[in-house]
Design a protein that fits this description.
Layout lengths: L4 E11 L3 E2 L2 E2 H11 L5 E5 L2 E2 L7 E2 L3 H4 L3 E8 L1 H14 L4 E9 L4 E2 L10 E15 L3 E2 L2 E2 H11 L5 E5 L2 E3 L5 E3 L10 E8 L1 H14 L4 E13 L4 E2 L10
Antiparallel strand pairs: 1-7, 1-8, 2-3, 4-7, 5-6, 9-18, 10-16, 10-17, 11-12, 13-16, 14-15
Helix pairs in contact: 4-5
Length: 244
């Protein structure tokens, strides 16, 4: 069952005309992976290439076009890959199998009209609130700092974050920042609020601290009651990991 986190990426190099019994090898591999419940796999056809036989295969030479290289790729858990490799090893009689460590950042699929309506969920329990205070003019590399922080938190799978823009405030330096009809400040106060589990908040606070040059990070205990009425994008373990 493929989820966010460490995983294995398997790449199989072979020729398009390589056979496995009555089928082409790449189709046989894809069929095998699908029947074994692999999250997703893709076969790519190359434009040109050469292998251990030291023969250049290219579309320009018609007699060699049938031998063009192909690549089959899929990502799965280490346990699943270990289960699949013995059969793949026997199937690939002329080719190359490569396994790399990788990290799954996101698994998502769009819900369709035919999907059943998701049940309502109510989650309660102790949690932590993270609040980050800084100025609207603060930047991270080439973008506003608040945009960069929200993007970072989203990639870390933090459950949610809200950006608040203040109308009046001052910080440690004693400078007053305000907005009025006659005075439009370009450095109004910004606060980002996040609520999640203690472990997730500790991880998020460390990431934000590395991005913050001048500001304040506050963490407090809260009691969380979260109502989930719908799931616009389902990130489930049975979602396809790769296109194709």
């Amino acid at each position: 069952m493929l989820t966010r986190g460490p995983a294995k990426k398997v790449t199989i190099y072979l020729n398009e005309d390589t056979r496995h019994h009555l089928d082409s090898l790449h189709e046989a591999i894809l069929t095998f992976l699908m029947h074994k419940g692999v999250a997703g796999a893709t076969a790519f056809r190359a434009m040109a290439g050469f292998g251990s036989h030291r023969v250049l295969h290219t579309r320009r030479v018609e007699v060699l076009a049938e031998h063009l290289p192909m690549v089959v790729e899929f990502i799965e858990t280490a346990e699943k890959v270990e289960e699949l490799l013995p059969t793949l090893y026997d199937m690939v009689s002329d080719g190359l199998i490569e396994v790399h460590d990788t990290t799954v950042l996101k698994i998502a699929r769009k819900t369709s009209k035919s999907d059943p309506a998701p049940p309502h969920e109510r989650r309660t329990g102790p949690a932590k609130m993270l609040r980050v205070f800084f100025g609207e003019a603060d930047r991270w590399k080439d973008e506003p700092l608040h945009d960069a922080i929200v993007k970072k938190l989203r990639m870390m799978d933090i459950s949610g974050a809200t950006v608040y823009r203040g109308i009046l405030g001052y910080g440690a330096k004693g400078h007053t920042h305000k907005q009025s009809f006659f005075h439009l400040s370009r450095d109004l106060p910004i606060m980002i609020s996040v609520v999640d589990t203690p472990a997730k908040i500790a991880e998020a606070a460390a990431a934000v601290e590395a991005m913050l040059e001048d500001g304040l990070i506050a963490v407090s205990d809260v009691e969380m009651t979260r109502l989930v009425r719908s799931k616009p994008v389902e990130e489930a373990a049975n979602a396809g990991a790769q296109p194709g």
